[in-house]
């Protein structure tokens, strides 16, 4: 988790949507969406293919008009004050177009010229600054066509940073990247957060999001099914794993724990008997990891002694799976549910890595 968060986070909303909705004909791509992104957030925007992430981002950037509802960025309604809002945003929604035969730095010059930024030596430090941030300074003279996919993606982010935006919006920035490329992007996002940028990141890759984001929203079929602080969401998904020496002991322990759960231990939300990788029976208890000693004591009271007992951290994957398995009657869109990596496999452009 990002450490800079506490120092930069001041609770000022940067993005606030109110009942934001987009329908394409009969298809409700985004339904009644209320999002809150605060200054200093690294905000993860999650959802399976077709759940409405890109449509939301396009509405936020004023690329398409909502069917209903509104989006307020930096306190301004984007239906009325879009130019003032866009000046403060750096975004990559689709892969930016670069000239293959021009170097990285020359491509940035072209983009700056095309978007009306100041040219000439006065901007040179800024080009180098952004290339430095994305760790491409040493490759700035290399022709774009010789860049790796990860370098191309980072040059795109450098271009989005030229005007020193407060909010950086990245739509699936790790698509198609190899593990090293994914790590580079993660480090880059952490650097941008440390520079005080607010980051809005849509992604399929849950472990990545878990590592860099402090807050997340999960979309399913155009509906917001979860929004919250990552640490809190993970805490809700903590478990305690207990292994007994013998299978019969595991069964007895399970019965004891279930009884205790009903009678006195309301801090246990669920208990299941499963098998570990060695096919040994284990008891998985959904409870705060700080309760491990209590579990030990409860078992000991019944002359049951665990061979192993250890807390398991919560994962965003567990949060996601639970959130997206909730049946939802509002929208008609077919989506792929219960896929750990938000089902990137059916789309060759998605670079989900397990
Ligand atoms: N211009 C459009 N016309 C009609 N339907 C559209 C249009 N744009 C998006 N959709 C539909 O809206 C739904 C949401 O699409 P969207 O691209 O926002 O999802 P997403 O979560 O970004 O998915 P992915 O991860 O695959 O990019 C999909 O069913 C998509 O087919």
Describe this structure in words.
It holds the Pfam family ABC_tran. Keywords: ATP-binding, Coiled coil, Nucleotide-binding, Transport. It comes from Dictyobacter alpinus. One of its GO terms (molecular function) is ATP hydrolysis activity. Belongs to the ABC transporter superfamily. The protein is of the alpha/beta class and 354 residues long. The protein folds into 2 domains: 216 residues, P-loop containing nucleotide triphosphate hydrolases (Rossmann fold, 3-Layer(aba) Sandwich); 88 residues, 2-Layer Sandwich (Alpha-Beta Plaits). Helices cover 33% and strands 24% of the residues. The chain is built from 12 helices and 15 strands. The strands form 3 sheets. Strands 7-8-9-4-10-11 form a 6-stranded mixed beta sheet, with helices on both faces. Strands 1, 2, 3, 5 and 6 form a 5-stranded antiparallel beta sheet that branches. α7 links the parallel β8 and β9. α6 packs parallel to α7. The radius of gyration is 24 Å and the shape is elongated. It starts with a helix and ends in a 30-residue tail after the last helix. The N terminus and C terminus are likely disordered. Bound molecules: adenosine-5'-triphosphate. The site of adenosine-5'-triphosphate has 12 residues, from β2 and α2.
